[in-house]
């Protein structure tokens, strides 16, 4: 890599990166190349990534558990939950999607809370009395779920929310209420003035500063990124990125084959990324791969979550998890659990060379979730299927 030179306000890169440079920088930035920081643990992963996406789907485990697992290995699942939710270490808010965020990022989302407060039209009508009642109940009783606030639904379809649920979600969006944990997958709400440390609650950043810090954080978490990548990480608009990227501390670079302006974290350019590659299964919602265009550009790997695709139209399965090995995405598996057996319902690999990595990743994941055996159900290539069954058996014996 070319040495870092002084940054200019416009995108006039003096640094050129090869495609492989960019791939390795991205992997190291995401904590998947080099020795993991086990002392910092799950909280260190969250702080560095800046956002860990939540999702209702649970196959091996929920996505927010799979993210630290991919980086740290078999951290106990109760340890993962405790690391996220105890000691007001994090909160849930709208970032890339519904995400767990480090509590230090509370001030950075003031721009979004202000935008919600300025909204004139909402999807649901809500009597002011209902809103006031929810805040009064939280004030009097402490942290509560929507059910404890009077029920989340009116009894109709899933979107038929009760007034209490509408009120508390609106209060969350504008920042009067914060989600401090998930309990049985239900959000637990508390007053922001009680849950957020005072030093952060009063850190009143203007919109420009919020955006500048979020773009900088996204750049560090990705290592190297295009304008669209930087916008997607916390779901900003590209024009918001354009307004602050020159002051973000990121360095303009040119990446082989990208054909688009890109920026990199100067620290990521200071030394060539080296170290041990992690071999692991990735959640489809992992921040390494949650953006499909970026995943295709970096890894030449087309990935699509098919959970919401009708079964007959699925190609790779309900919850296909890409396999990361040797710094590349070399296959995927749609896993399931049947009792104490992890079942690889459908596997596709880029050739027989990827078989040992898939077999090892399946056994490691099985052990982590408490399964004692692995079974391959389907692999379309007969030679790969035979080799994978043999390797799964060998490791299991």
Topology:
Layout: E1 16-17, H1 19-29, H2 41-49, E2 52-53, H3 63-72, H4 77-85, E3 90-94, E4 98-102, H5 110-117, H6 128-141, H7 163-174, E5 177-183, E6 186-191, H8 192-195, H9 198-201, H10 207-222, E7 224-226, H11 227-233, H12 238-244, E8 251-255, E9 262-264, H13 266-269, E10 280-281, H14 292-299, E11 321-325, E12 328-338, E13 341-349, H15 355-368, E14 373-376, H16 382-396
Parallel strand pairs: 1-8, 13-14
Antiparallel strand pairs: 2-4, 3-4, 5-6, 7-9, 8-9, 10-11, 11-12, 12-13
Q: Count the strands?
A: 14
Count of helix runs: 16
Helix content: 25-40%
Going by helix content, strand content and strand pairing, the class is alpha+beta
What fraction of the residues are assigned to beta strands by DSSP?
A: 15-25%
Give a quick account of the main beta sheet: strands, pairing sense, barrel closure. Answer: 5 strands, mixed
Radius of gyration (CA) equals 22 Å
Mean pLDDT: 92
Q: Name the helix and strand elements from N-terminus to C-terminus, one letter apiece.
A: EHHEHHEEHHHEEHHHEHHEEHEHEEEHEH
Strand order of the largest sheet: 10-11-12-13-14
Q: What's the shape?
A: globular
> Which blocks of ≥5 consecutive residues have pLDDT under 50?
2-9
First-last Cα distance: 45 Å
Describe this structure in words.
This protein is of the alpha+beta class and 397 residues long. The chain has helices at residues 19-29, 41-49, 63-72, 77-85, 110-117, 128-141, 163-174, 192-195, 198-201, 207-222, 227-233, 238-244, 266-269, 292-299, 355-368, 382-396, and strands at residues 16-17, 52-53, 90-94, 98-102, 177-183, 186-191, 224-226, 251-255, 262-264, 280-281, 321-325, 328-338, 341-349, 373-376. Strands 10-11-12-13-14 form a 5-stranded mixed β-sheet, sandwiched between helices. A 4-stranded mixed β-sheet has the order 1-8-9-7. Helix 15 crosses helix 16. It starts with 15 loop residues before the first strand and ends with a helix. The model is unreliable at 2-9 (pLDDT under 50).
């Amino acid at each position: 890599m070319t040495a870092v030179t002084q940054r200019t306000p416009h995108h006039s890169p003096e640094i050129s990166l090869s495609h492989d440079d960019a791939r390795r920088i991205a992997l190291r930035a995401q904590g998947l190349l080099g020795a993991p920081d086990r002392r910092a643990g799950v909280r260190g992963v969250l702080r560095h990534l800046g956002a860990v996406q939540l999702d209702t789907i649970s196959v091996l485990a929920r996505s927010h558990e799979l993210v630290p697992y991919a980086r740290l290995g078999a951290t106990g699942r109760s340890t993962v939950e405790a690391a996220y939710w105890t000691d007001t270490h994090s909160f849930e808010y709208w970032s890339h999607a519904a995400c767990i965020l480090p509590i230090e990022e509370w001030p950075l989302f003031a721009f979004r809370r202000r935008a919600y407060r300025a909204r004139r039209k909402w999807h649901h009508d809500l009597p002011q009395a209902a809103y006031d009642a929810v805040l009064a109940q939280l004030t009097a009783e402490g942290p509560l779920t929507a059910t404890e606030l009077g029920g989340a639904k009116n009894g109709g379809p899933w979107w038929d929310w009760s007034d209490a649920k509408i009120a508390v979600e609106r209060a969350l969006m504008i920042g009067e209420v914060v989600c401090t944990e998930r309990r049985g997958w239900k959000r637990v709400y508390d007053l922001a003035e009680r849950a957020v440390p005072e030093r952060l609650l009063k850190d009143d950043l203007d919109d420009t500063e919020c955006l500048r810090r979020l773009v900088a954080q996204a750049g560090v978490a990705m290592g190297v990124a295009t304008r669209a990548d930087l916008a997607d990480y916390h779901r900003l608009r590209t024009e918001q990125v354009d307004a602050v990227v020159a002051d973000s501390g990121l360095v303009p670079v040119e990446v082989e084959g990208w054909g688009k302006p890109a920026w990199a974290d100067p620290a990521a350019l200071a030394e060539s990324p080296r170290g041990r590659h992690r071999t692991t299964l990735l959640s489809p919602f992992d921040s390494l791969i949650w953006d499909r265009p970026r995943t295709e550009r970096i890894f030449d790997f087309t990935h699509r979550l098919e959970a919401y695709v009708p079964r007959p139209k699925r190609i790779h399965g309900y919850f296909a998890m890409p396999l990361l090995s040797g710094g590349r995405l070399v296959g995927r598996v749609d896993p399931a659990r049947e009792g104490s057996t992890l079942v690889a319902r459908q596997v596709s690999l880029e050739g027989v060379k990827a078989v040992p990595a898939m077999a090892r990743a399946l056994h490691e994941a099985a052990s982590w979730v408490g399964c004692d055996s692995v079974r391959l159900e389907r692999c379309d290539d007969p030679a790969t299927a035979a080799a994978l069954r043999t390797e799964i058996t060998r490791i299991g014996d």
